[in-house]
Write a structure and sequence with these properties.
Elements lengths: L7 E5 L3 H13 L3 E5 L2 H8 L6 E5 L1 E2 L2 E2 H9 L9 E6 L4 H10 L3 E4 L4 H31 E2 L2 E2 L3 H14 L5 E4 L6 H10 L8 E5 L8 H6 L16 H4 L4 E5 L6 H13 L1 E2 L8 E2 L3 E6 L3 H7 L4 H8 L2 E3 L7 H19 L5 E2 L1 H9 L5 H15 L4 E2 L6 H4 L8 H7 L2 H8 L6 H15 L4 H8 L3 H10 L1
Parallel strand pairs: 1-2, 1-3, 3-6, 6-7, 10-15, 10-16, 11-12, 12-15, 17-18
Antiparallel strand pairs: 4-5, 8-9, 13-14
Helix pairs in contact: 5-13, 6-7, 13-15, 20-21
Length: 467
């Protein structure tokens, strides 16, 4: 995490021999070292430089080193202030502990163990760099994120604008997106941008509630409504009154409950299980699904009238493979976030790892990308994440559906004869024919073809354009 290139260090030590030894040891480790022997000289030095670390003795000829600690701690921007290592004689440990309480990062007693000293400098530098990177990450997040969603692609910018517009409306919303695209984040953004932002936001997965409890879970129940219902209970609709309710996987909701949900959408009325009277609720329904609800309407498993009521304000979240320019951005952001959280010194991805990430389709979308980066950080014990740190599905160029034997068998007889004949094709011609053969074998699926050929999709597209 030393990419800031600030390896300046200030030594404040009146023992000239010790100061020279510290300076020599640090310079061999790549540090630029400034040495002063008095407190006033240290203050003057700090007026013209901001070192990454200050190493100071507590007992100096013209004053107490504690005043230097206090001055540094009062510097604006606690994340950018220098790291502080205090050196003290064994009899002044109590004063050194006081320096820690005042904000110093560590203290060492004389005589110095140089190996321990260098390890302490490295640890303090890494801790300081983590603070700096965390601040940078948060600033970057504020600039490029929208309610926890990151994206610079045109499709994501368009989605963010749609959210802002639809949030001001009052009707229900239907969010469609593949698993892992961030449907709940979109729902939270709709809630946060709406006039209901101060009200509750609740989310429920319709596929995760037993069918016999669905009605009670949504609409509540009266005391004695069924066995075990000893007292009246509010349902999700009542709990979300004045706010928004996300119904994830709406396509899994039974038809009987769909009818009651439609009634609630039409006139804002619900009837708790076992209750004779209706209750009014003011809730904005945000439905989400990864399924094709129109197909479910045709199949008869989803009400057509409910579908069109929800679909009036529809939002579609693009899959990650449809926003390739965001893959690297998200991978880098996830890496910074996870590395900071784990306290790891990882600079980034090398070119090969980044190319593999760009060329992979990520069927699990953003969630899968996050998991891939998290795994890579766990396996990486180097400064850069390389291809071996990524899951096999990103690095493998083989396709389980098509073995080498099946590829050979799939080759037309005339192609096999051509390879054995007296006139051999040129290498570009052979490549062109083989690429076409693979594409035909996988029914034109370019992702699978690229995996079999061991190249990136962009390379495959370029080859096809050059034909």
């Amino acid at each position: 995490m030393m990419h800031e290139n600030n390896k300046q260090l200030l030594v404040v030590e009146d023992d000239h021999a010790l100061a020279d030894l510290i300076s020599e040891e640090l310079e061999t480790e790549g540090w630029t070292v400034s040495v002063v022997h008095e407190l006033q000289a240290a203050f003057e030095k700090l007026s013209g430089m901001l070192p990454a670390i200050i190493v100071t003795d507590l007992r100096l000829p013209d004053g107490d080193g504690m005043s230097l600690v206090e001055t540094v701690m009062q510097m604006p921007g606690v994340d950018e202030r220098p790291g502080l290592i205090v050196i003290t004689a064994f009899g002044s440990v109590k004063q050194a502990v006081a320096a820690l309480h005042a904000g110093a990062d560590d203290f060492l007693t004389k005589p110095l163990d140089m190996e321990h000293f260098l390890l302490t400098v490295e640890r303090v530098m890494e801790a300081r760099q983590i603070k700096v990177e965390l601040k940078q990450f948060r600033q970057l997040g504020k600039q490029q994120q929208f309610y926890g969603m990151f994206g610079q692609s045109e499709s994501m910018r368009h989605l963010f604008e749609q959210i802002k517009v639809i949030a001001k409306a009052q009707g229900p919303v239907l969010i469609h997106g593949e698993s892992g695209t961030g449907k709940e984040l979109v729902a939270k953004a709709l809630h946060g941008e709406s006039e209901r932002a101060d009200g509750p936001f609740l989310a429920v997965n319709c596929a995760g509630i037993p069918s016999d409890l669905l009605e009670s879970e949504f609409f509540g129940h009266a005391a004695g409504a069924f066995t075990g219902a000893s007292k009246k209970r509010k349902g999700l609709m009542q709990q979300a009154h004045g706010g928004s309710l996300l119904l994830d996987e709406i396509g899994e909701m039974p038809l009987s409950l769909q009818a009651k949900l439609l009634r609630a959408l039409e006139d804002g009325s619900i009837r708790p299980v076992g209750q004779d009277t209706e209750e009014k609720v003011d809730v904005r329904i945000i439905a989400a699904t990864h399924r094709d609800l129109k197909q479910k309407v045709e199949d008869g498993s989803f009400r057509e009238d409910l579908y069109y009521r929800l679909e009036a304000f529809g939002l579609s979240i693009p899959a990650l493979r449809e926003r390739e320019e965001d893959q690297e951005l998200l991978a880098q952001l996830f890496l910074r976030q996870i590395a900071i959280e784990r306290g790891r010194s990882i600079k980034g991805f090398d070119d090969k790892a980044l190319a593999l990430i760009r060329d992979y389709d990520f069927p699990g979308n953003v969630r899968e990308l996050h998991n891939v980066v998290e795994r890579a950080v766990a396996f990486c014990n180097e400064e850069w994440i390389r291809a071996p740190h990524l899951p096999a599905r990103l690095t493998s160029v083989s396709n389980p559906d098509i073995s080498a034997a099946s590829q050979s068998a799939a080759m037309p007889h005339e192609e096999q004869a051509l390879l054995k004949g007296p006139v051999m094709p040129s290498l570009p011609e052979l490549q062109r024919r083989y690429v076409r053969m693979v594409l035909d074998t996988v029914d034109g699926n370019k992702r699978r073809a690229a995996a079999i050929l061991g190249i990136g999709r962009k390379t495959l597209y370029r080859w096809l354009e050059e034909e």
